[in-house]
Fold this protein.
Amino acid sequence: MPVLKGTLEGIVLALLAEQPAYGYEITTRIRDHGFTDIAEGTIYALLVRIEQKKLVDVEKVPSEKGPPRKVYTLNAQGRQELGEFWKTWDFLRTHIERLNNTNEEN
C-alpha cells in the first residue's frame, strides 16, 4: 500500500517518540507496523532530512559490527512537529471520512 507524501516523516517521528533508534531499527519497526513496501534507502534519506530540520538529536554509539551507529532521539522541536502531524492527520481523516460517507449515501 503506498504511503501519502509527507506521511512517512510523521510515521518515523511517531516511532522515535516511542524510543530512540538507529536507521535499520527504524526500518524494521516501520515494516513491523505493516509498511512493508518502504525501501531502506528511503528511510535513510528521510533521517538526513529530519536531522537537517533539527527534529532529532543524534548520538554516535559504538557498534559491535562496523562503524558507530547514529541513534536518533526525538527532541522538543521534533515533538512539536509530531503534534502538528497528528493535528493534520486528524483533520484529513475526519474530512475524508465525511466525504466517503456522503458518497456512500448517494
